[in-house]
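Posting here for the record, re: shikimate-3-phosphate.
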Amino acid sequence: MIQTQSKIVHPGGFTGGIVRVPGDKSISHRTALLAGISSGVSTISGFLQAEDCLNTLKAMEAFGARSWFDEDGILSIQGTGGKMLEPAGPLDVGNSGTGMRLLAGLCAGSPITVTLSGDESLNSRPMRRIQEPLERMGAKIDLTDAGTAPMTIHGGSLHGIEYCLPVNSAQVKSCCILAGLYADGTTTVVEPVPTRDHTERMLRAVGAPIKVDGQNISIQGYGAKGPKFLARPYVVPGDFSSAAYWLAAAAAIPGCELRAENIGLNRRRTALLDVLRRMGAAVEVERTSLAADPEVYGNVTVRGAALRGTEVRGEEIPNLIDELPLVAVLGALASGRTAIRDAAELRVKESDRIAVMADNLASLGVCVRELDDGLLVEGPARVSPTRAIRTHGDHRIAMAMAVLAIFSDAPVCIGNVACVDTSYPEFWNQLQQLGVNVE
Ligand code: S3P
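Prediction output follows.
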């Protein structure tokens, strides 16, 4: 895909207020998968209609599911009843690591051959991390010599294994759990550091035999016939990671107040709220979900302050992995040093987010140092553009840098922004609704 579109963000204007963001990306992917293999028609309200999730939905259709949206945006999915058909050709899942890794796990236990590929960014991301456990379970996975997609999965005849995750990755964990559904025997994934647990919660909600005992997550397999889940209604809350841009912008403006309504509050996603508090902002959380809901959701109000630097590292990292570019932005606005460590995974996201953030922050006059596993940012910076921001086709870089542009002393041009459509097509409109001038 050639991406040439750019945006100019003018400084100032951010008013705060009340905001509602589109549906959670991680949960939307997983509803497409689970509804796609259930028996009957599931309905999903709040499904994120962005490129990544729509590609996963299309892939599920290639495996035999059917899906349609009504005029209110409610998605219906008629599932396959557990069976996975062999797709007629290779499946292109676009930019999404979640789509590719979860789909690979889901189809690995069926006696079919499937080729998955993506865009240039996705086809350069590491896939040995799923090849290894899937091959130990009995599948055969072909990758390029570099260990990347295009990936061909020769599926079927899986057996359960015990697998200790070598990387803190919810995508790898979910891949193994989904493969375990179609395996004979029990699959146990050992997770030394907690990562987002949407897959586990959703499987529990559909009645799957999944057990979580400390670091061990076990799923009893149904064998190659697959599980017999019944269709059900799903409600996807707003995406915390999308609301994060607005919460962060408000946090850095003393006196500004912003309330994000109906957003996911899974505690393995919300470490940014702890970071905002440490940096000096006031954060209030109001839970509106019911005890029986599989996911926690509610409203978050942030009141801005003069921020101070902080450090994020260790077990906190997986719980704000997608917000780390934004933490670097906050570091540029806070007084003192902000350190991000233990985050080498950032180098294998949609772009090398450590190198790309260091380069872009420096181009705005921010004092930043690149570490192997993170960034050191000194603030507060006088934010002043010397050239256009280079997003490298990475949606989270584009959006995080758009937030920093609000604090600049001159308009900031952000190049190559079509990538934002992979997760948050309404981003620029919402930025304008919050008072910022965008061309
Ligand atoms: C995701 C997990 C995270 C995150 C990604 C979505 C998921 O990746 O960065 O945007 O939905 O499971 P890793 O678990 O590989 O770090």
